[in-house]
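Lecture 7, part 2: worked example. A protein chain together with adenosine-5'-diphosphate.
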Amino acid sequence: MFAKIIIDQDAKALDREFEYSIPKDLDVKVGMRVIVPFGSRSLQGFVVDISENCSFDEAKVKPILRTVEDFACLKKEMLALMFYMADKLHLKLASVLRLFLPSEMRTDKIKELVVRMCSLSDNFVMPSARAKKQLEIVSYLQERGQVEFSELSNKFGYAPLSALVKGGTVKIWMQQHNRTPEFDVIEKQERKLTPLQQRAVDTITENKTYLLHGVTGSGKTEVYMNLIERALSKGKSAIMLVPEISLTPQVLASFRSRFGEQVALIHSGLSAGERFDEWKRIFFGEAKVVVGARSAIFSPIENVGIIIIDEEHEQSYVSETNPRYDTHDIALFRRAYNNCTLVLGSATPSIESYAKAIDGEYQLVEMPVRVNGMEMPKIVVVDMLMEMRQGNNKIFSIPLIYELKNIIEEKKQAMIFINRRGFSSFQRCRQCGYVAKCSDCDVSLVYHVYENRLKCHYCGKRFKALDVCPSCGSRDIKQGAVGTERVVEELKSLFPGVPIFRMDNDTTSRKNGHRTILNEFRNAKPGILVGTQMIAKGHDFEDVLLVGIVDADQSLYQSDYRSIERTFQLITQVSGRAGRSAKQGRVILQTYSPKHFVYRFATNYDYKGFFKKEANLRKVTNFPPYARILRILFSHEDEKVVANECKMCYNEVKKIKEQYPDDFVYLDVMKAPLNKIKNKFRYQIMMRFKLEKADEIEKKVFLTVDPKAKSSVFFEVNPNNLS
Ligand code: ADP
Ligand code: ZN
Ligand code: ZN
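Predicted complex, written out as structure tokens:
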């Protein structure tokens, strides 16, 4: 027999199947990890196929040396997924495989946690009455059956215990222990579903993809849990994805209290050991519900009955680094493979998903009101230019300070949201609000501090940085963003003695950092939580009655085609944290462009109106989801090499463009906005083409460019981040 094997090395030259023979005495199955001779080395590989014959001279085929485990660590579905991803996303097989197994397992670094257990032997003899301690140990064991060695020796001393072991009265064996991730414990709550929730649960029954559009506080989590319960009762399993899981310990706790030990957690905050142990519990079928961040979509769980992606619009579902993938694609694959239900839930669905729902590709289910009938928080737009004209140059507007004072007097809570992203930002006139835009692309320009230049991240065009506003002639040009730290300082001086918490990448890097901050904030009344997007997500604090958005425009003038969509989502999500229980909440939204259409739709919670406007804009300007963007990023230490190579590939792509003159909307080659990262120079080819033949064109481009590129190339479809 012969096996086709993928070598576990992330190298282009090895990115194919290699054939080996299977020794007679070796039990090799598809999906197993094996060690094979490769040149002068022995390397790890994965068996992807077994057949009777081989395509080479049989005499020359080398044999597999050994198997690593006695089971197939890659199940059939995962192998199918591997081939699908490699083909569709232009990834190397070995790099895909790495997503499926805990890295600790692949590199054999992690040791299983094994403890020594003690129990009485079958025909043990009672120790003599003089050996008091030994008698105590025996009766302790009689009562309890099995006890850890360390516990016994701590309690009764090492000497009497080892005497009992030597004499054969007590036997020792090794038991494997699972490390379980920490989570908050809350009581199991059984709730009667509201009519809207019930309707959602009754509708989501078929093996299709559903888009659950429910406003913030409409009780989507409860719907998810009911759906999962139903899957479990049919003997099936479930995958529940949440964005950046450690941010929402509450959600975790409620899943754990509802489904107990059946829940496994997979997220980046786990230690290597915890991650490995959870993976094993899933692999061997102990855990039937996987809750986790995007990587949990690769869990080796079988017989999947339902997959849920909560907050489906979140960017964190896209892996921006190699191997690049969008969790939606993987979920759709697994849905089809398992012939099961997929639910995408959000208060602000992505334009892409909602467009599919409208086209009938997804089934739309709506929950337009909050669980308790609470009104959505009132969003007040504050014109910061006006504030400035009236002499207030501070971070906070008069209305926001006024509302904060009220909150503090009433001993309630507030959240202050400040969105700070990336190293660069736009330039804006402080007098009239003018923001520089590209003359060709209608996106705002990004200010590059080091070069003191404005650049378009789409077409690469460069512009002089502003020193005088072209619109009003003022020299009062501002750049750079106010950060969370500044906001905290300001609040402290305004409200001495009030507990103020900060939640951002800096304060949450410790293990359980989020949980600690959120738990402290929960008990602080009055209290103010300042944070980045992290505070916008899923949190449910009943005493938060005020949300302040310091600078709503910050996400609006990012230079990618999703910036308006993202702004709408952020406002809706962060506003959704206010007034979730007994009293209507209030949101103060500070902006320099109060007339922008996004604010009109957001303040009215008019998702549908917003969708219509934004979708139409994208349609007429040929942007996704009505067109496809493909960026090919080249990087290399030698700038000449990468520039030449990129140019050469660009010329090849130009030839493809000539074959599809009606499909290409845009094609150009340029330095990447971040021209040099970690001493590697970066160049890119950007293209945009219509959807009709998009797959065909994409494939052609890939097959043309990939073999020609010696530097590292990175293919990105509809990238979020253009740096
Ligand atoms: P969403 O995710 O849609 O924003 P959540 O799932 O966080 O909303 O639910 C909002 C709040 O309503 C939570 O505090 C939740 O415990 C509560 N809740 C959900 N369903 C019910 C119900 N059927 N009865 C009472 N309270 C509910
Ligand atoms: Zn441009
Ligand atoms: Zn101006």
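The chain has five domains: 2-106, 113-177, 195-367, 378-423+482-617, 627-717. The domain at 113-177 is CATH 1.10.10 (Arc Repressor Mutant, subunit A). Keep this in mind for problem set question 3.
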